[in-house]
Structure prediction request, 328 residues.
Amino acid sequence: MATLKDVARLAGVSVKTVSNVVNGYSFVKPDNRRRVEEALEATGYRPNLGARNLRRGRTGFIALVLPELSIPYFAELAGLVIAAAQDHEWNVLIEQTFGTLAGERSALASLGPHLVDAAILSPEALQVDDFQLPVPAVLLGEHAVDVPISRVGIDNVAAAQAAVRHLVSLGHQRIAAIGAHPHRGTAALRLEGYRRALAEASLPLVDELVVPALNYHRADGAAAMRSLLDLRTPPDAVFCFNDLLAIGAMRAAGERFVRVPQDLAVVGFDNNEESVYSSPSLTSVAPDKAAIAQAAVDLLHRRVESGDALENVETPFSLQVRESTVAR
Prediction:
C-alpha cells in the first residue's frame, strides 16, 4: 500500500503538505494541491481511517437507534443514513428497539464514547429523564418530550391535515383514522392533523371512526378496517397513519367486496416503495427521507466537530396522489 511518503515523493512536496490535502485543510497552495491530488490518484493511496480516528480520539462509528427494521420506512431511512454517513467517513451501527421503553433504554445504555462518536435516535417511549446521553445525538421526528437535543423531521400535523384535506376535496364526509396510539408521539400529532382538517371542513369528529393500532403492521390495519366495516354506517374514506396500515386496510376492504376507491378512499403515510406497486396503488404522504437522513448526519457531524448549538430542522413533505383515492 502506498504511504504518505510515496505520495510526497511523487508530488515533489513535503509529507505535511500531503497530510494537509488528505485531511481537507484549505491553506494548501493550488498548484501543490493539484500535484498531490494527481499523486494520490496515481499511487492509489487510501488513508488509514483507524489510525486517523485514534489520533483524533474518535471511533469512526455512529449509532442509529430505530424502532423496527421490518417497517419499510425505517429500513429505507437506515440505508439513506448509511449513505450520508459515508460522506463523513462514519460507519453506522444499527440498534432495533421495537419501540418499547425497555428496548430503548437498553439501546441508550449501550452507547458510549468508547464505542460510537454520536447517535441518531428515533424513540417512541423514552421519558425526559432517559435522555442523559454520553455522546452527541440527534432525534428523528417530533416527540412530546422536551429535551435539549437537536431534531430533524417533518411537520406531522400539517402532513396529516393535507392528507385529510385531500379526502375532503373529493367529497368524502365520513372519514376514519387508523393508527391512534397512546405512546407514539407521531401518532398524537397525526391525529391532531386529522382533527384539524375535519374541523376546517365543518365535519364532526366521530369517536367510532378513530381506531387505535397497537402496532403499525399490515395485520393491524386489516383488523382496524374490519371493525370499521362492521359499523352500522361504515366510513367512505380512511386516513392511515402509515402505509402498512393502509395496505392491510385495503386488503380487508377487498375481502368484503368494498371497492377502493369507488366505495372507500384510502390514504397512507410514509410513501414506501410498496405504495407504488400495491393494487390499487396507494395515495400516501411522502416525507423527504433523503433530506431527513442527510440533515440528521450533517447536523450530527457539526455537533461532533465543533459543538454547534442545538438545531431543529424541518424537512419537506408532499402528498403523492395515486389510485386508492382517484380511480383510473
Remarks:
- The chain has twelve helices and twelve strands.
